[in-house]
Amino acid sequence: MYEFLTNLIGNEVLAWIIIAALPLFVVILPYALVAIWLERKVSAHMQDRLGPMITGWHGWLQSFADVLKLLQKEDLVPAEADKKLFNIAPALVFTASYAAFAVIPFSSGFIGSGAEIGIFFILAVSSFAVAGILMGGWASNNKYSLIGAMRAVAQIISYEIPTALVVLSMVMITGTLSLEKISAMQTGYFWNWFIFGGPEWGLTKFLLIPFMLVGFLILYMSTLAEVNRTPFDIPEAESELVGGYHTEYSGMKFAMFFLAEYANMFAVSAIVSIIFFGGYQSPVGYLGDLFGVSWLIPFEQLFWFVAKGLFFVFVQMWLRWTLPRLRVDQLMNLCWKYLIPYSIANLIIIGLISLI
Amino acid sequence: MSGLKQYFKDSWEGIWTVLVGMKITFKHLFVPNVTIQYPSVRVPMPERVRNRLYVNMDDCIGCDQCSRACPVSCISIDTVKSLPSEDLGVTSNGKKKALWVTKFDIDFAKCCYCQLCVFPCPTECIYMTDVYEFSEYERGKLLYNFSTLTPEQAAEKKANLEKFNAEKEALKAAAAAEAAAKPKIEKPQDKTE
Ligand code: SF4
Ligand code: SF4
């Protein structure tokens, strides 16, 4: 992608800028608008309502209207807030979620950075968001914000452990930290995905399947908790904490928190789909191969990647409108008493199996 | 060992119950909506709903009974007596109107839609309608003026009455003065005669 742009424009700096800005404008913003609309429609239909219907066909322009509204809103800073930190926090949170997109392989033709340590990088920058959240909650000088921020920190840091352990077990199997390589390994048909034991045929493949399933469940749950979504949304529990750490934010700063949340949802869905569901690989082969048009393949891969990502985002929404919110102690209970022991056991077993 | 068994059972139950819940919500995804698209589709109002009041001023005799019945005093009525020369007509149930209703204000910001004002009205001219969408951006706009008289007309009626009263007073005063003055004037006349 980068070489292609450098050749096209003939200017390296410009190509880099475009590469850096592309995920934001091509992927994150439109995705967030669609996801917010989808969330509303999914929630509405699950409650036997219709959701937004006025703006455009089935209200699909509603998110645009909301963005316009947020742009016009007054940008309030509480008088007693720590102004500097208050202003930095949303940018920090958004940067963290945006940074994760840098290493995600959208298709074999569009990889922001094929960094060798991709998955490690994502784990690292996602904990970076914690700093922003705590900063926002602290600087707001508001009880609710502070409690929300503290909860968020406790939650995100706890749930990083099972995430990291599952990722570690996958790294043991694949032998690489690069998301691009992990995706490339699972090429072919869907039975080559790691959820079905990986691309290598043999006894190990079948032995791995149940443990992959456990790993997938743990990863999905803990990443769900890391992005503060229901049932793990206690940091922003509306009914207890008003809005949690973003209670005091308004206008575009609030929009940045909001955008970061939706960007994070896609980022973790993408990670789940890359690690277990073949990333950008098609489950059934490519039309491009069938007709011999090789330029079509990257686009098909992009389609499959976005489809898988959106599917997991949809499941997140689905869970949100199914489950009630956990209590703080239940949340910690789930993480420390269930997810972590299971993921450690899973790690050991997968390690033993991969020795065979 | 039984502890461990319980532990696995709990984990399984946790996952299983979530799946059951997800099945239910997924089914509801395809259930037709039970809500209506309000501004374009409306539920018909039941017969005896209590919404915004309406006063048919043609029938109002200005008796002030509605205003006195109102528990929150949101009706304010001012009346001016009509002159004997003016004929205000009769109400639809045959009552003779004798008062100009110069002010008939209902403050719907205060009104609690209790309908208590409706029952005492002798001419049944104050009643509930089915209009319920009358929100305003300013509270002052919820003060409805039902009086059919313009402020100028009201002032004119008042002035008329005052003039009439003044004339009457003047007449009375003149009569009284006459009555008082007559003997005084007549006596000297008597003397001169
Ligand atoms: S409905 Fe009740 S509150 Fe309203 S004007 Fe009549 S008596 Fe007063
Ligand atoms: S009770 Fe009826 S007639 Fe009397 S003032 Fe009220 S509305 Fe008019």
Question: Can you offer a commentary on this structure?
Answer:
- The complex is a heterodimer of chains A (356) and B (193).
- By secondary structure, chain A is an all-alpha fold.
- Chain A has 2 domains: 22-72, no CATH class; 87-354, no CATH class.
- Chain A has 13 helices and 2 strands; from the N terminus they run H-H-H-H-E-E-H-H-H-H-H-H-H-H-H.
- A two-stranded antiparallel ribbon of chain A has the order 1-2.
- The longest helix of chain A is centred in the first third of the chain and has 35 residues, at 12-46.
- The relative contact order of chain A is 0.14.
- Chain B is rod-shaped and about 130 Å long.
- The model of chain B has no long low-confidence stretch (mean pLDDT 84).
- Chain B is an alpha+beta fold and 193 residues long.
- The longest helix of chain B has 42 residues, at 151-192.
- Chain B has a domain at 53-152: Alpha-Beta Plaits, CATH 3.30.70.3270.
- Helix content of chain B is 38%, strand content 13%.
- Chain A binds chain B through residues 42, 44-50, 53, 217, 318-319, 321-323, 338, 342, and chain B through 10-11, 14-15, 18, 21-22, 24-26, 28-35, 37.
- The complex binds iron/sulfur cluster (2 copies).
- One iron/sulfur cluster binds next to helix 2 of chain B.
- Residues 53, 69-72, 74-75, 106, 111-117 of chain B line the site of one iron/sulfur cluster (SF4).
Query: Spans of chain B with pLDDT under 50 lasting ≥5 residues?
Result: none
The poorly predicted ranges of chain A are none
The main β sheet of chain A shows up as: 2 strands, antiparallel
Query: Quaternary arrangement of the chains shown?
Result: heterodimer
Radius of gyration of chain A: 21 Å
* Element-by-element helix/strand order of chain B: HEHEEEEH
Q: Approximately how much helix is present in the residues of chain B?
A: 25-40%
Q: Which pair of chains forms the biggest interface, and how many residues does each contribute?
A: A-B, 17 and 19 residues
Largest β sheet strand count, sense and barrel closure of chain B: 3 strands, antiparallel
Distance between the termini of chain B: 144 Å
Count of the separate structural domains of chain A: 2
The counted number of beta strands of chain A is 2
CATH topology of one domain in chain B: Alpha-Beta Plaits
Head-to-tail CA distance between termini of chain A: 39 Å
Task: Give the integer mean of the pLDDT values of chain B.
Answer: 84
